[in-house]
């Protein structure tokens, strides 16, 4: 598989990948301690496409990302990619895709399709509940990070921050 875009490095900060905030933007009651923790450093309003066919997981992920100030759209299948990308202004900066979706579609397929539809580079994260050793080996050989369900919000924050951080000066 080919990389979808450059992998920016973490910002040089005493706590890489985090900005300290006592009151994260968009904090909603009921999100728990994970939402009240440090927010990832990113470009405010960065566009994140969440592709997840489990509605509860999708809603929780979207609420967390929006609490960090990110602009989000959700699609359950590849059929929903067009409308979701339109809600993001035509392109995503980051795709977070479940590995196993309906109709034998994988997160890899989704990321490739989004990359084909937009002219701008994108970063990606695969999320999986798969535990089979062979599947895990193949997933970890991909060009993008893999997070395991249930996803730890702190780990998601760290990976999101790294992927959305501005590129280091050359």
Overview in brief:
The modification 4-aspartylphosphate is found at residue 98. Helices cover 32% and strands 14% of the residues.
Give an overview in words.
With 170 residues, the chain is α/β, with parallel strands linked by helices. It has a single domain, classed as Rossmann fold. It contains 6 helices and 5 strands; from the N terminus they run αβαβαβαβαβα. The chain has helices spanning 33-36, 55-67, 81-87, 107-117, 133-139, 153-164, and strands at residues 47-51, 71-75, 94-98, 123-128, 146-148. The longest helix has 13 residues, at 55-67. It is globular, with a radius of gyration of 15 Å.
Query: Looking at the structure, what is the overall shape?
Result: globular
Rg estimate, integer Å: 15 Å
Strand content of the residues, in percent?
A: 5-15%
Mean pLDDT: 76
CATH class: Alpha Beta
Would you tell me the structural class of the helices and strands?
A: alpha/beta
The CATH superfamily title:
Response regulator
Number of helices: 6
Keywords: Phosphoprotein
Protein name: Response regulator
Organism: Oleomonas cavernae
Modified residues (4-aspartylphosphate): 98
């Amino acid at each position: 598989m080919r990389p979808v875009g450059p992998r920016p490095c973490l910002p040089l900060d005493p706590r890489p990948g985090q900005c300290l905030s006592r009151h994260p933007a968009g904090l909603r009651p009921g999100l728990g301690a994970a939402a009240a923790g440090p927010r990832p450093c990113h470009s405010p309003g960065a566009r994140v496409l969440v592709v997840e066919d489990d509605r509860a997981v999708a809603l929780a992920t979207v609420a967390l990302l929006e609490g960090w100030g990110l602009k989000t759209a959700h699609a359950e299948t590849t059929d929903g990619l067009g409308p979701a990308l339109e809600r993001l202004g035509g392109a995503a900066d980051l795709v977070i895709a479940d590995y196993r979706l309906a109709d034998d579609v994988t997160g890899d397929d989704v990321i490739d399709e989004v990359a084909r539809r937009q002219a701008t580079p994108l970063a990606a994260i695969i999320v999986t509940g798969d535990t089979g050793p062979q599947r895990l080996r193949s997933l970890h050989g991909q060009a993008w990070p893999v997070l395991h369900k249930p996803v730890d919000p702190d780990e998601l924050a760290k990976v999101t921050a790294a992927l959305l951080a501005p590129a280091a000066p050359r």
